[in-house]
């Protein structure tokens, strides 16, 4: 197990040492400013923008000894197959200044119509459906106060560089495990869902919480079953709220960017069921290097961020299985805290990114566990568990070609110190052919090491014996993706 305190200190020391050593020579993309503002003197009333991504993926993991498959061995967001061609993203939007043209006001709007996790969700029974086109971004920025631009609406929250990065510029097909499991939030299902009439559920007014799903066989999957039981879409690293932000020039061509946001903690949904609000804080410093444009601008960026809020969770345990009554209801508020620190350097020949992330509360336990449980015991409740992880990414731009070679290692530990502690690690190697800054083909190969590492009295816990029967055989994954943006 990595000593996380030592890793954090090392990363911070290396990041700031690299930063000061690069004075006069080395900024990576400032996503806060790029996504929230329009260029002064160059903006127009309405600029169409968007992209299309199509990929093929194949998961090589075998079934467990009973012939069952778990989410880690299936392709998201549907979780019903191990290979396939997907229109993973189809996004279209508009951005520009207000009407009549006013550079003090700008807006951004974006919709998703592909087979993405932001518009695909479960029906509570394991089946997955597509909700059609959904709005993922809709914001207005007011640029009237020097040093304090104000952005309101729904947009990406200040946070991890991987979460802020545009999908059109991502070097890999899939997210890191630490970002996917700690930051790409799955919001809990509504407190109560109607029960289906059965021998154990006959009352017309009886309501029950969504239960967990066991592994499905290949036959069940082929007949339409799915393992995604979350009835709400993933957050897409977004929230609805108000953000104050800006960027300032400093000595030696350094730039400082800050952002502070108050949000509903509801992802791309428009409700605020718990009546609570999340806070987001972000600080970065960037230094430009000569050369490169847009997302490939040469430079160094150092950043740190923090997010804090609460989520309302259903801890109901039915006195009679599948026949809950009002007296069984047990809803509680749990803290959800996330923080991170990292650095990114882009030069004419190479790219290096490192980020460390910590999480406290609302740990994602799997698409088949919409109430964040492995079991209905304190040891299996991810609502008040902790986790941490990191990733290190490197790329080499082959001189005088359009080819790029990439390699990344990422790891995350969930439910640390508990009998159901898990460690998910992944190596990804790949290459890209970049036709132009807006179009590319990406090839990836992943090696995954997923396991339950929890102990009880020095021996593998009962939870781990069960979990590892499925996780020990998680294997490699191959993917190829075509991206075209405009």
Going by CATH, the architecture would be: Beta Barrel
Q: Can you summarize the main beta sheet?
A: 16 strands, antiparallel, barrel
Radius of gyration: 23 Å
Tally the structural domains: 1
Number of strands: 24
Query: Percent helix among the residues?
Result: 10-25%
Ends apart, CA distance between termini: 44 Å
The shape is globular
The share of residues in extended strands comes to 35-45%
- SSE ordering: HHEEEEEEEEHHEEEHEEEEEEEEEEEEHE
Give average pLDDT, whole number.
Answer: 86
**Model regions low in confidence, pLDDT < 50 over at least 5 residues:** 10-27
Strand order, sheet with most strands: 1-3-4-7-8-12-13-14-15-16-17-18-19-20-21-24
CATH superfamily: Porin
Structural class: mainly beta
Helix count equals: 6
What is the CATH topology assignment? Porin
CATH level 1 class label: Mainly Beta
Fold topology:
Layout: H1 4-21, H2 31-36, E1 47-59, E2 68-69, E3 83-98, E4 102-112, E5 120-122, E6 128-130, E7 134-142, E8 149-156, H3 161-164, H4 177-182, E9 193-194, E10 207-208, E11 216-217, H5 218-222, E12 238-249, E13 254-263, E14 278-288, E15 299-314, E16 331-346, E17 350-360, E18 386-397, E19 403-414, E20 422-436, E21 439-452, E22 455-456, E23 459-460, H6 462-471, E24 477-485
Antiparallel strand pairs: 1-3, 1-24, 2-11, 3-4, 4-7, 5-6, 7-8, 8-12, 9-10, 12-13, 13-14, 14-15, 15-16, 16-17, 17-18, 18-19, 19-20, 20-21, 21-24, 22-23
